[in-house]
Amino acid sequence: DEPSWIHWSFFPHKVLRKRYQSLLIEHLKEKIQKELRSDMPDKDLMVFSEPSAMKGFFDDLKKEYKNGFFVHITEERKELKPTIGYIGRYARRPPLSEVRIKDYTGEWVTFEYKDYRHGGSKVLHTLKTIDFIGRLIRHIPSHYFNVIRHFGILASRVKKQYKEITDRVLESPPEVDEAPN
Fold first, then answer.
1. CA angle 127, 129, 135 (to 5 degrees)
2. What is the pLDDT along the chain (181 residues), one digit of tens a residue?
3. If I label 58, which of 64, 95, 136, 159 is the partner at 20 to 30 A Cα–Cα?
4. How far apart (Å, rounded) are the C-alpha atoms in residues 181 and 169?
5. In the chain, what are the domain boundaries?
6. What is the pTM of this model?
């Protein structure tokens, strides 16, 4: 009956997916509308000049991804070298360069990638625009994205200190390795 302390390391994944989706869509709408109001709007965004087109596009996106957009959450990494390599790859270049997009019709996107499962040969792949964007946005950090994965009380360098403080305040709670699922 007594409340018990549960040690935690990460936020619940399911909660983040829908929230991330709504915030990203809201941010995209704002950016598209701002671009359309500019003196020289991007011609590829002109398809969104009709409010019904933008609404339809984002409604389709929400229907396609009913559970929200993918949010990558993993346990704390023990090896730093691979982590530094991962951060470096995305800090230096985008997940897909413009040169690799070979064709865009408004409804379909054709892009090129290396198929390392078959010797690194170049392969052309065509997807519906909505699917292409869905796959691509998984890799694009937002404008204010902090490369450091956790901050505040979740930051690796201070998490132990905060845990010690909360343990003292809560009079040494029982040791629990993981939060229940």
1. 70
2. 677 766 666 566 777 888 889 999 999 999 999 989 999 888 888 888 888 999 999 999 899 889 888 877 666 667 767 766 666 665 656 667 788 889 988 899 999 989 988 888 999 999 998 888 888 777 766 666 655 556 566 677 777 777 777 677 666 545 666 655 5
3. 95
4. 26
5. 10-73, 146-176
6. 0.39
